[in-house]
Structures are given as structure tokens and as C-alpha cells.
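residues and backbone:
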Amino acid sequence: DPDVYDKQHASVDVIVVGAGPAGLAAAIAAARSGASVALLDDKPQLGGSLRYEPGSIEGVPAGEWLNAREAEIASLPNLRVLTSTTAFGYYDHNHLLANELLAPTPTAPRQRLWKIRAQRVVLATGAIERPLVFPNNDRPGVMLAGAARQYLHRHGVLPGRRVAIATSDDSAYEAAFELHAAGVEIALIADARGESALAAKARALGIDVAPRHAPTDTRGRHGLRRVEFHEVDGHGRALPDTGRWLDVDALLVSGGWNPTVHLFSQSGGALRYDDARKAFVPHRYAQPGIVVGAAAGHADRELAVADARAALQRERDVADTAAVAASALWSVNVDALGRSATKSWVDLASDSTESDLQLAARENFVSVEHFKRYTTTGMMTDQGKTSNVNAIGILAGVLGKQPGEVGTTRFRPPFNPVTFGAIAGRNVGAAYRPRRLLAAHAAHQAAGAAMEDYGAWYRPAFYPRPGESEHATIAREVLAVRNAVGVLDYSPLGKILVYGADAAEFLTRVYVNNMRTLKVGQCRYGLMLGEDGIVKDDGVVTRWADDSFVVGTTSGQADRIVDWLEEWLQCEWVDLDVTVESVTTQWAVMMLAGPRARDVLAQLGCDIDLSAAAFPHMSARQGHIGDVPVRIARVSFTGELGYEISVPWRFGRSLWDALLDKGRASGIVPFGIESLMVMRTEKGFLHVGSDTDGLTFPQDVGFETIIGKKAEDFIGRRSTMTPEGRRADRRQLVGLAPVDGRTLLAVGGHIVDAGFRSGTARTQGWVTSSFASPTLGRPVALALVERGRARSGERVQVYDGGRLVPATIVSMSAYDPEGERLKM
């Protein structure tokens, strides 16, 4: 999308949605009281129905009244007007979302998303005209009477030359009078109610009025040419032998008006069916606000304006309004005419018909939410704004109920479709998720690192030399670490400080492992589970004091784990004295790995005793390098002697440079994430997310003994003990080796029986990690395989894309299985 979108927040005393006569009156009254006011309207101009429904208001022509209100608005500095702005969502605490359409220019935003909060909300959203349901009512040329008035007054366009009108309320008469004055021939006004008070005026103008008549059919190949009318009884049933055809080029219909209650419903407000108005109206409020004007059921413009001016002084209930001359004609029934194979369309957008609705009722889809989904009524572009009430009326008739007993579906945001670009705003491209750069980012770029996104961080994948391929680069880096020493920027590793008197108890509940027994200055690898028992994350926990731990997480999960731990503390274990704080970006970490790692680290002048006896594997020490505080954990994800050296973030680049400088004589090389992934697979170390999926329990990755020894409860323990968790045929993480010693097994390739040749077979698992090992000179792989550990040495096949590769189930650790190199 080449366009630019924007977002803006605002806070006002009063939001008025809708700038018709009621909305204008409410906004001006609120602003006069000194309140800050935002007036929103989805049209480019203020006025609403005043622009297409002429007449007078408060003793002056509608146009003059509107001009006076616009002038008054311009004089009120505390009233902000947002035109071409649709309020599409009403959320808790009077929080509204609105989308503003802006004049397009090459550089300015195309749309702006407003997030507005207010003390009070006034909904002056108007009403929506209801169409009539009758056979063949979808022909071009059949339109709402209100639409014809807008064509005439807003655009100067006539809907037709010879027009018929079908109605069950008085507003369509006004359309007839205005079109007649514009030179349109009104062939007939068919009023399903009977004799209207306005019928005499119509006849005085020479317009034929047919009481108790409704349309029963239409004709026309490319547009409307003829309409049939029949007399109908009080239930909308057409009476035989009363029909007549009229030649017309437009049929204007009006079945009454539905208050636009969508935002009110979104706010949590309850509706009631008003039998006098044949419509659903606001009934009970859930948030501080008020509904005024036609949205509250006021049909009279004068009453609507008076009601709106007093809105903010009124209690939060819906005042009674004057009765309106309306009648419910949910559909025209032509069964008595003996016709078949004609369709009466209820939702013109989703093409649902009256017979579809009747079928839904026969199939017992009578709950209004089920009914909506079965028929798709109200699920298309206008979200049922014109069709839903007719559909509810038809369903009520089939069930022998009142529409209020059937109820409405819950109206949800957005009221109108919203551009995805407006929702995103400027958070696109590089700003969608700003890249997190390492403390030594410039140094990695200077070293020619191939940078890639890993989680939220921009990190070196490998460091190619001129003319060197990715494969050759990774092999060189791996061998350098195995034979000498390498350094990796490990700063994105998640680091969460957990401290407090109950920190040990808390972490023992969080981890599969028992962290209460972890001694100060020691490290322990552990797994976290979700409540479902599925492996959530892993990492090394270091205890720095009796009441202080640092939890290590995977880089991509660091932020999520902080939130997750906070949730447990705030919602479940509120009695624990524990504080959780992310320190990921407070400490830069360099991983120094390889048999010469201790020699390089010693040259930095660290005041920590680095000897193997004083500083064994899985322990941690803190001290200084010069004047810089340092924390060092002797842990390894490569399988070699390794140190994770942490310094304050601002010293990360200096530490990186110093390690490369002091390690030059030892053959130090920088290595990237891809090389680390090769080494951890050679060693058989788990990588959560690669070697696990959404079904992996801890016992699937070798933690069954630890679970069995731990007496204390922990998150997810109960789920691991279910029959599903105890199945003997669960997929377990194992090693795989190709039988020929050369073929690289495809990640995602499925495990099948050794005897499988062709056809279909049930998968027994799949390859999770696979690399060509520079250390061993052959491929290594890990896989989740059914009963994998019990099948060690068994021959299987890996199926991928029609190719079968024989392989053997082996130990996960292909390199240094006894771990001697870790203990150097």
C-alpha cells in the first residue's frame, strides 16, 4: 500500500457522534456549558438529513437553520469538528475509535485513526430506512425512498421519470411530494397500512393512492420496467383478483425506520422492541452516555432537537417519544396467488431470501445468532443494517412470536469496514516492529556479518570472508570453536531478574526442576511449561543471592515470559514476596567458547579465579574487568568449554573488541547463530520451537526422571500426568543418522517404517533439526519419533517429497556424549 496512515489520541468531556439536527443541537449545548466537545460525522459536511430533507425547523427553513448552527460552531473554540469521520467502535470506559478520511495528497496521510475518550458520549446516529420484502425485489430500479431524496437534493439526480412508491410509513409521502415538484410523474403510492393522513394531500396533487396495497412482482430485463401491485390484508397477504401492473422505471420503497443502535449496543447497552415504532430502540445503558434524535426513536425533527439540547442534563434513561405512523410489513405473502419459484430477497448483499429464513426455522436454527449464521443474513458488506430487522420480523412470524422475543444479534465493531492501513497507522515497514540492535552492532557490520532477524533482534547469522559461501563460512566457524576459540554476541538472550523472600519458592513452582535447592553461585538448566503441560520455554537459571535469581530465556520469548510470570504473581500467587523485572537490555553478553576460551578470558585482567577447580561447569561468578562490573556464567550451548560474560550494556562493544584483540594469538573467530545451531545439534541440545511443537511434554525431551524426583507441584504438572501425557507411544526426541552417512535428512521429513515403499503411511514423527556436521564429517539430525528412546538402533525411513532416505535412530548426542569437553 503506497499510502500513509496516521493515528491520534484525544480526550474530551463530551463526544457527539452524528452531526444531523439532533447532533448539532447536542454538541452546541455541551460546548456552551464550557465542556470540551468532539463532534464526529461520517459525511464530508455537517447537517445530516437537513441536506436532503427540506422543510422547516424551529420556524426557519432547514438550510437557514443549518447555516446558523455552522456559524455558531465556528465561534466555539472548545468544539472540535471531525467530518468524514466514522465512529466504528465503542469500547469500555467511553473509549471510541473513529476513522477519518483525509484529502489525498502525495505526502499527507490518507486516513487517520482516532482513539478518543470522554466523560459522556452522545449518540445522535440517526436511523436507517427499512426496505420491503416482496417477490423479485432485487431488480435494478428498486430503491429506498430516502435514497431517492438524497439523489434529488444532494446530487440533483432524478431516480426515474415515472415512479411508483410502496410504503408502510409516512416518510415516503414526502419523497413523493418532492419528486413530483421536481417534475417526476408519480404513478402510484401503495400504502400497505391503509388510508394515511397524507393521502388527501397526494390526491390533491393528482397522485393516485392505493391504501392496503403492496408490490407483488416486478419485470424488466436490464432494469425495472413494470411493477405489479395487489391489495393485502393486515398480515401482508396478497388477495387474489386485486392485482394490476404499472409501467414505471423506478420503485421507491420504505418499510419504516430502524434507529441506528449499533454503537449503543457495542457499549453494552440493551435494546427493546418498541411495537409502536416497529423497531428496536435503546433501553438500558451500560456506560455514561445518552442516545438522542432518531437513534432514540424520535421521528419528529423538532422533538429530536429539543431532546438533544437537554441530553446532558437528563438521567441515563431513554425518554418516551411521540408515537409514529408506522406499520410492520415484514414481507409480502403471495401464497394465495398460487405462484411458485419466485424469490423475495431479505439481504440484498448476501442474497438470502425469505425461503432461506423459513428453512432455517424448520431446521431449528431459531436462536437469532444461529439463524444469522445459517442464513448469512447480515453478514455481508452492510452487516445487516438494512436487512436484520426484516429478517427478525420474518423469523418471529414463523415462530409465532413478537420480534422482541426473538431479539437481535450482538452488534460488534467495526460499524463500517476499516482499512487495515488505518489500523496499522505508521507502524509499517521498519516501524512495524523496530529492529533491536546489539550493543556491538557496528562492529558486526564492520566484520562483514550476514545480518538476519532472529525474533525481535537483528543478529549476525555468520561472518563470511570474501568469496566464501554460507556453507563454507559456517563450517570454518564451527571448526574454529571446536579446535580453538570463538566469540558470539549473545546479548539478546532473555535475562529476567526474580528477587524477593519467596523467589526460590516461586521459581520452583514455575520450573519442572527444583530451583529451591539451587545454591548461590550455581546455574541450572530448566524447562517451563504451560498449564497444559506443553513445553513453553527453556533456559539457564543463575542464583546470585539467597533471594535473587536471573532467569535465562530464549531470545524470542523474553518479553512474553516476563508478562507470563507477572500474570502468575498478580492473579494467582498474590501472597508471594517476589518482584520480576526484565534486565535483558541492561547486560550485554558475549559467549566465549572453545578449548582456549579460558586462556583468552584470563588475558582480560578479570579478578575472578578462572581455574577449573574454582570455577566449574554450571557455576557463576561476579567481579570486575578493570573498573567494569562483570558477571560470568560457565555454561555452554556449543558443547565446548564456555563462558557467558555479562557487562553493562554500554560496555558491550568494548568487551567484543577486547575479546577479539586478546584472542588473536589463540585463533579466535566471531561466529553467528547458524554456526551455534550446528554445534548444539551435534551435541544434541534441545532448541525449543525447533525440536518441540504445541504437543511436546517435558517427558518427551528426557525430563521424566526429573519430574519423578520432584515432590513439589509446578505449573503444568497435572497435565503431564493425564492419560495423554502417559501414553507409551508419545513422540520422543532422539537422534537420527542416515544409513549411508552422507545424505542430509530434510527438516520436516516424516518418519515411516523401514519396509514402506509407496502409497500412504501413518507418520511416526518428523525431523526437527538437521545439519551437515563439519566436526564429524557427516550429517546429524534430531527428530520427534514415536517411542523413540525405546527404538534406539532401529532402522526407519525419512519420507520427504516422494524421496525415502534410510536412517537409524541413535543417541541425541553425536559429539562428546560424555561431556568431557564441557568440564575442561
